Amino acid sequence: MTSPTPLSPELAPYPAKSYLPFILYPPGMKHVQAGKSWLEEHIDMEQPGVDFVLYIGIPFCRTRCKSCPYFISLLSESDPRGREDAYVDALVKDIQHWSTYRKFGEGTVKNIYIGGGTGSILKTSNLQRIIDAIYTSFRVADEAEFTLEGNARDYTQEKIDFIVNSKINRISLGVQSFQPEILSIVGSPHAADDSDRVIREFQERGFNNIQLDLMYNMPGHTMEIWKRDLQHLNELGVPHFTIYLYRIHDNTVQAKLISKGKVERPADPESPMVKAMYGEAKEIAEAMGYKMYMVDHFAKEGFENKYNYYNWKEYIDTLAIGPASYSYFDGYRLGTESDIDRYIERVNANDFLISSVTDKMDGRVQRERYIIFGFLYYEIEFSFYMKKFGTSIMDDFGDTIARLERKGLLEVSDDRIRLTDLGIAWHTNVILEFFNEKFWEDTDSLTQPNWSLNGVMVEAGAHSREHWLGDPAIDFFPAIEANND
After folding, report:
1. Which of 36, 219, 238, 438 is deepest in the core (most CB within 10 A)?
2. What is the pTM of this model?
3. Taken in order 117, 335, 320, 79, is the CA torsion positive or negative?
4. What's the rounded Cα separation, in Å, for the pair 323 and 342?
5. How far apart are CA 194 and CA 197, in angstroms?
6. Of 371, 336, 385, whose CA–CA distance to 87 is shortest?
């Protein structure tokens, strides 16, 4: 293995840097009004049972964060119309319906994730109903990790006690920051002391598998505040955290407040301060015993996110149940739209709500998809790739790999390819190198309904390849300067 030549600070490997909060591939999906008949016509649902991960979508929030662009349905605590119960009634039926197919009913659930929206918003009685439906409908691996995602404000002592004694063995909290002044600016649904209270109460009950989301470069954010957040996280003894660059999305409340001068605009991602924030997170985390084991994910040994591991590293099927969620199996991505009432109606008619689909992926696209996800873990092992696809990664993508190695973004050894430090810094651009040429300049998909995080991938692919990656014959470009306007 040869070490790449350090890149001059005046040069960059690409003309524009892509910042994507989440990776989905292929991005473009066609809107359909389909259900059980489409599923059974296109996919052999009676094939032998498979290993898969199970995602359960809870489409409710108490409030909308100021810069949230994604689907939610606001649910009041009083819930006078009984919307939560009606939704869980349908969700339980949907879980049971999917399990009637041999593919999933005789398969093995390796991991379970209740997300949203806000998974923790549900009453304990409804959480119990969902857990019971999963465990009576599917074969769940004994070692399965079961995560509940949500917000600290939802956790009463009664709910904490319930979770500690349930099948749920991991929680994920959208903390964002521990600083009250920052939370008020971004419109967080919880107060700063909520997070401390909930974390300590779980730990006092012997429940320690806790994951936190932190954001950086929020309006008013400073390096001092960021360091305080990281140090406080360590003081709490939380074993896993994820960092996200704060983004201002068009037509959100925060975007309007910024345009009116009522909220400070976040710094440019290419500014020295934001780059230093990212670097500081890595340095402080390593000093505190965390390892950045995948892009933007930090864990102490033994607490790595297993849902991501099975989804992206082992690359097994994903069955996602509930509105605004996406499944992947048998060469298709399948999406369920965000309309809760329509979802309930279709489920009660003994049907599925399949609202968007990709074309069936050919072998090339499936291999691209694996590489794009595999690089979230920095490397692709030759033997695993060969076992999975029956081909050599160097035969399939040799020209692209050679270009990335030449740019100092990849190292090639006898048994794997691995991102260099420069490759990690330009991670999203590197994975865009593996986009199929037919997905570039896909402006038609911008007009299709996109739920959850799919829209950001569609927007990236709507550009030309050259916008992000430049001329493939040119290795280096003038360094990107921050836009401080």
Report:
1. 238
2. 0.95
3. positive
4. 9
5. 5
6. 336
Determine which helix (DSSP H) or strand (DSSP E) holds 471, and give its type and residue range. Answer: none
CB–CB of 238/291 below 8 Å?
no
Q: Give yes or no for a contact between 289 and 235, defined as CB atoms under 8 angstroms apart.
A: no
Give the span between the Cα atoms of 229 and 252, in whole angstroms. Answer: 26
Q: CA–CA separation, 377 vs 31, rounded Å?
A: 32
Distance of CA 180 to CAs 36, 41, 258, Å?
48, 53, 20
Distance CA 40, CA 359 (A): 16
Please name the residue ranges forming H helices in 316-439.
340-348, 363-374, 382-389, 393-406, 421-425, 427-432
pLDDT tier for residue 9 given thresholds of 50, 70 and 90? confident
d(CA 52, CA 103): 10
Give me 213's structure tokens.
């989301």
> Are the C-beta atoms of 29 and 451 separated by less than 8 Å?
no
pLDDT of residue 385: 98
Is pLDDT above 60 for 96? Answer: yes
The residues near 351 (Cβ < 8 Å, ≥ 6 apart) are 35, 36
Are 263 and 257 spatial neighbours (Cβ–Cβ below 8 Å)?
yes
The pLDDT-based confidence of 4 (bands split at 50, 70, 90) is low
Q: In sequence order, what are the beta bridge partners of 52?
A: 109, 317
DSSP calls for 170-225: EEEEEEE-S-HHHHHHHT-SS-HHHHHHHHHHHHHTT---EEEEEEES-TT--HHH
* Helix-, strand-, coil-residue percentages of the chain, each rounded to 5: 40, 20, 40
DSSP state of 302: T
- The answer to whether 306 touches 291, Cβ cutoff 8 Å, is no
- The three-point CA angle 252-255-259 to 5° equals 145
Could you give phi then psi for residue 417, rounded to 5 degrees? -115, 145
Q: What would the pLDDT profile of 128-171 be if each residue is shown by its tens digit?
A: 999 999 999 999 999 999 999 999 999 999 999 999 999 999 99
